[in-house]
Amino acid sequence: MAKDVIIEIGLEELPARFIDDAEKQFLDKAAKALTELRISYESITSFSTPRRLAVQIKDVAEFQTTIEEEAKGPTESIAKDADGNWTKAAIGFTRGQGKTPEDIYFKELKGVNYIFVKKHIEGKPTMELLPVFKEIIESIQFGKNMRWGTETLKYARPIRWLVALYGSDVIPFEIARVHTSNKTFGHRFLGKEIILDNPEQYQSVLLENYVIADPDERERLILEGIHELEEKEGFTIPVDSKLLNEVRNLVEYPTVFLGSFEEEYLVLPSEVLITSMKEHQRYFPVISREGKLLPHFIGVRNGDNQSIETVIRGNEKVLRARLADAKFFFEEDKKQSIDFYLEKLNRVVFQVKLGTIREKVDRVVHITKELTKLLGLDEREQKLAIRAAEISKFDLMTNMVNEFTELQGVIGEKYATYFGEDPTVAKAISEHYLPRQANGELPETVVGAVVSIADKIDTIVGCISVGLKPTGSQDPYGLRRQATGILRILSARKWNISLEKIMGITQSLYQTLTIEQAKEEDVTRDLHEFFQLRAAFLLKELAVEQDVIQAVVHKEIGIFYYTEEKAKLLSTKRNEEDFKPIQEALVRLLNLANKIEQMEVNPSLFETDSERVLFSQYEDSVAAYSTASNNKDAQLALSILSELSKPIHAFFDNNMVMTDNIQVRNNRLALINRIASLVTDFADLSLIEWKQHF
Question: Where do the DALR anticodon binding domain residues begin and end (predicted)?
C-alpha cells in the first residue's frame, strides 16, 4: 500500500537569499534519488520558511520496482574452450551475476556472439532505502556555510530538528547528532511543539501554529494585504519583485501593516528615503497616484495582527531614527564644498598597490582626456567629461555615502547639482558607476559613458598589472562585471574605437607610474585573455557558437559592436548550404598561409591565367573591403571576401603551390598570404567547425 513521505530540516533562521535555491536543490535531489532507487510515487512538493526546508512526497510505493535485467558477458570464443566447455571467464561471469552456466544464452551483436544471462532484481522495501535522505540533506549547498559546536558538518545554519516520516513510521537516520523523529515546531513565538501523526497533516498543523509552509502562499498573502491597503488608502505601492521575494523568505506568517514618518523627512533625496526603507528595513515605499513619494511605508510582520499598533510604532521609531541621522548627514554635508571632499581623497587608500583614491581619480582624468580625443568629442563635451572625471569620487568622503554606501554616485549627482555643477557633469557622476550589475542600466549621456569606461579600464588594467587577476569564483574588485560593462557601453554607443586602443592608453599611463607591476607583454596577454572571456560571455547571450566567437576575437576584440555583427553573421552563414564552397575556398587558403615570411607579390612570375585573375580580383577587393570595414558593414565585407572564392578554387585547381621552382612557389605563397591577411582581418574562419553543419 502506498504511503506519503514528509522530510523536514529544522534550522536556525536561514538568510533569505539562500532559501529559494536550497529548496530547489532539496526538491531536485529528492526526485533524482527516488528515480535512481526505482521508488515510484505520484507527486513531490517542496516547502520552505526561514526555519525549515521540506519535501512532501505523495503515494510512495512500499517496494522498489522489481526489474528484469540482461547482463552481457564475454564473446563466445572466450566463454568456451576448444572442446566446447565453459571457460573460467564464463563461470566467473555467471557467478558474479548470481547465476550458473545453465542460465547462459547467446546473442549476436555486430556479427559477434556474446553470452548473456537474465537477472531478476527483486525490489527492496522502500523503508530500507529512505535513509538516503541523510545524504541528500548533507549534500545541499549554500552560498556560505558554518560549523557549530564540535560538528564537522558545514551548513548554512545549525540543524535543530529533523522530521522523516513514511506514513506514520519514522525513517531512522542522524545528522550532526540530531535524530529523526515525528516532532516539528510551529512559529517561534506563536506556535508550539507539534507531533505529526502522518505526512498528510503537515501543512494544516503548521498553519494552526502560525506557519505557512508554502512560500508562494505567503507571497500571495503579502500582495493581497498590499492591494487592500492601496484600495483603502488611495495610494500606490510599487512592488519590487526582489524585495517581495526577500520579505516572503523572512517570515513564516505574514501580516501586512501601514506605517508613517514625518513629512519633514521628504526634503531628503528620494533615493535616500527609498534606500532606508527597502535596503535597511525591508519596507515597501508608498507613492501617490501622481508618482510622488509619500511619508508612509508598508511593512510585513512575522506573526498575526495581535498588538499590531505596538508593532507599527516600533517600526516607525526605528525608521525615524535612521531618517533623522540621514537628515543630519545631509545638512552637514552641504556645509562643505566639493574641493573639501576632494582633498580628503588623498587620505583614503583605493588599493594598497595602486595608491589612494585621489591617485585613481588622476588616472581616470588622464584616460578620459585621451578617450575624448579618440572619439572626436567637441570642446564643450571634452571639458564636461574631464570635470566629471575630476569630481567623480568626491561623494565617497561625505557622511551620507558613509551611511548609505549603495548610493555612491547618486549622492554625488545630488550634491554636485546643489554645489552648482553643470547638470551633465552631475549626471555623469552617477552614471559612471553604471552598469552596477552585468546586465544593468547603461549610462545615457556621452560624458557619463566616457567616464564610466575610463574608471573601469583603470581598475582592470591596474589590478591585472599588479597581479590581482580574478581566479575561479574570486573577483573581489568586480573586474568581470566592469569588463562586461565596458564592452556593453562600447556596443550600445557603436563607438569606432577598439578595445585594444583603450587598453593601450591605460597601459601606457601605467608604464609611467612608480608602482611595482608585471612585464608589459605579460599584462597585455592577460588583459586580452581576460576580455576575450567577457566578450565570449556577451556573444553567447546573442546565441553565437563558441567556435565562431573564437574566430572573431582570435587576434583582438577590436571595435566591439562590429565584432558582434561579424559573429552574428558567421553564425548564420555556417548553416547556409550556399556558403559551403565559399568557406571551403577561404579556409583552404588560410591553411596554406604563413608558409613563408610576408613577401611582395611579383606578377611577372605568374605562369597561369588563374594566378593573374586571382591577383587582379584581390587588388580590386582590397579597397572595397577597406571601405566596408571602415563603415563597419559586416555583410558587405564578407560579401567582398566571398567573391574571391571562385578564383581561389580555380587557382588551386590549376596550380601546384608547392612547385619545385622556389621563386614561383614563394610568389604563390606570397599571394596566398596577402589574401589570407584580408580574410583574417574579418575572422579566422579556420577556427570554425564548418563540417559539422553540412
Answer: 582-679
Give the number of C-alpha atoms closer than 13 A to the C-alpha of residue 507, restricted to the C-beta side. Answer: 19
Contact predicate 68/119, CB 8 Å: yes
5 three-state secondary structure? strand
Q: What is the structure's pLDDT at 694? A: 38
Round to the nearest angstrom and report the end-to-end CA distance of the chain: 55
Distant-in-sequence, close-in-space partners of 125: CB < 8 Å, separation ≥ 6: 62, 63, 64
The helix or strand, by DSSP H or E, that contains position 513, with its residue range, turns out to be none
d(CA 244, CA 228): 16
Give the Cα separation of 430 and 368 in Å (integer).
16
> What is the C-alpha to C-alpha distance for residues 685 and 582, in angstroms, rounded to an integer?
11
Cell numbers placing 574: 555556417
Cα 230 from Cα 234, distance rounded (Å): 5
Q: What is the pLDDT of residues 594-628, one digit of tens each?
A: 766 667 899 999 999 999 999 999 999 999 999 99
**Structure confidence at residue 67 (pLDDT):** 83
Whether residue 519 is found in the same domain as residue 664: no
Structural domain count, the chain:
5
The segments of the chain whose pLDDT lies below 70 read 595-598, 690-694
Q: Comparing C-alpha atoms, which of 676, 659, 643, 649 is closest to residue 607?
A: 659
What's the burial of 243, exposed, middle or buried (CB within 10 Å: 0-12/13-18/19+)? middle
The domain in which residue 257 lies consists of 215-334
Who's near 290: CB < 8 A, 6+ residues apart?
Answer: none
Give CA–CA dist 268/261, Å, rounded: 13
Question: What percent of the chain is modeled with pLDDT above 90?
Answer: 86
pLDDT value at residue 691:
52
**Residue 181 DSSP SS3:** strand
Q: Backbone phi, then psi, for 378, in 5-degree steps?
A: -70, 170
The CATH code of the domain that includes 381 is 1.10.3210
At which of 299, 334, 369 does a domain end?
A: 334
**Do 182 and 229 belong to one domain?**
no
Q: Beta strands 178-181 and 159-166: pairing type?
A: parallel
Same domain membership, residue 406 and residue 365:
yes
Q: What local confidence, expressed as pLDDT, does residue 595 receive?
A: 67
CATH at residue 578: 1.10.730.10
For residue 575, the model assigns a pLDDT of 84
Q: Which is nearest to 563 in space by CA: 641, 500, 478?
A: 500
Sequence-distant (6+) residues with CB within 8 A of 416 are 338, 391, 394, 425, 426, 429
pLDDT value at position 199?
Answer: 97
Q: Residue 278, CB half-sphere, CA atoms under 13 Å: how many?
A: 20
Q: Same structural domain for residues 417 and 496?
A: yes
Looking at the fold, whether 350 and 374 belong to one and the same domain comes out as: yes
